[in-house]
Amino acid sequence: MLLVFLSWIYIFITAKNFGILFTKIFSIERCNVFVLQILGLFSYAITTSFFAFFIRINIEYYLFILILNIVIIYSYKSTIKQYFNSILLSFKNLKFQYKTLYLVLFIIILAQSSTKPYLLDNETYYIQTIKWINEYGFVKGLANVHLFLGQNSSWHILQAGFNFPFFSSFYNDLNGFLFIIFGFFAIEKLNSYKTSEDNQSFNLGLVLLFSLFLMQFVNAPSPDLLIFLITPYIFYLFIINYKNISATNFKIILSLVIFLCFVKVTMAVLLILLLILFINNYKNIKKEIWQYSLFCITIFGLFVAKNAIISGYLLYPISQIDVVNFDWKVPKKLLEFYKLGTYLEGMSNIDVSQLGFLEKIKLWLTLPKLDGLFNKVFALLLIAFPWVIYKNKDKSCLLLIYALAILQFIILWFTSPQYRFFFVFVSFLGIQVFATIITNKRVGLYLVSLSIFLSAIPVFSTINLNAFTNNNFAMELNTFKLKNVIIPEENTRTKTKFTKHNVDNFEFYSPNKDVFFWVTGNGELPCVNTKQIEYIKYYFKYVPQLRTDDLEDGFKSVLIED
After folding, report:
1. Helix 59-75 with 77-92: angle, nearest 10 deg
2. How many Cα atoms within 13 Å fall on the side-chain side of residue 536?
3. Which secondary structure element, helix H or strand E, spans residue 251, and what is its range?
4. CA dist., res. 278 & res. 295, Å (int)
5. Which among 161, 359, 487, 494 could bridge 48 via Cys, Cβ 3.0 to 4.6 Å?
6. Which of 527, 492, 488, 485 lies closest to 510 in space, CA to CA?
7. What DSSP assignment string belongs to 158-189?
8. 129 C-beta neighbours (distance < 10 Å), count
């Protein structure tokens, strides 16, 4: 816990500094503490991404950032002082019960951040993505080694800039930091419920109703948590600024949306909200916003360049936009295999090729355990939400967000209908339904408190998740131990050792034990499961190969002749 807390202090200072620099460069005024931190993380992600094209994100990069932090602190001393005074004032203004509630939430998140990661994706590609960035930066054709490495989210790039790889392998705590700053912001909204006439502001605080669920994303660098926490805030800003928005607020929303798209391309649907705001408020923002467009183009350029380097495609895994021809390009057959697997993941890996549309819907709704539960809830919310729109004063805004939820579901239905990809709409629509039915806000406050206290149970006691998942690898949570008060657990739960293998002159490390097909854990680079290599070789006749004798020069897929 102690080392995680020290890491959070470093992240806090760096995000604050980069946030201040970002707001100064782009003339963003009246920025609250929470937004400043998020903009700082966004700015730092952009900076780290840029350098990853040229160098590894390791000790030399950390020294550069240290010097830059010192320069920013010296240059903006008065602004930083005001920033800290604002934080202290915000905490002071919290009622006693809300201070207590936040401290409880803080301790739970801190403890959870010190345990071993729960999420399976952490063991398949999170660790390896970050490790490659720390040791080599962006590597040409890396997706040929492991198809999941082609995703290379900017959230993992950001974690690579905060995990001190030259020191240890247990700093895996970016999501914990994100949750504590959002938690404070949400509790502020709840604290002001008696004086605020803004129901949507109170509803934003109700995101903490899902604390028990969100806590499972804390101890791994999952991009999903950022989506779950920031998207409701974007919806909130969209609603309150729908008819009249300042250039500053538009820049904030634009920055947040671009950040989410940079982190996870599935959030591109949010660009529709930006377009609506732009059209509605063009006269108010046209003078200032066009200069910001160059920055947006730059971000998009970084995104497609990163994809091209790692996979050979501009918008991986979309193969239809195929305008570059590098020797490290992932073969289309493998890309289709990857996309099929991603789709089937949303159907609990059941072959649905012979089923009709209604049969697929029935199967999707009746999937076992947590998958089926969230699918049913989402379907019910889509049916019930028109009534909420009818009862609410923000009809136009809610209708647009509702249409966006339907659009997102349609897109996901043909790509990967996994509940975590539309959970943010489940939470938003669910909170709106709840607030419309339960008008007594105290009920919401009590339930938030209950959810936060319940979220401590899986952190401090051993729980078998057989009732919620069919995945044996992720069946049991790792609980907090006394030794974790000082030193957190390592960034992996894969206990097996790794052995060096050679398949058709491709040398790699593979887990010894019979683990899940895609699992790589924290194995030495390059690491990939032998099962995966042999499977792709047998069915697709491709094997990864080094482009040169140096790992830094990347990989390509070579067709193996029979």
Report:
1. 90
2. 29
3. helix 247-263
4. 17
5. 161
6. 527
7. HHHTTS-TTT-S----HHHHHHHHHHHHHHHH
8. 26
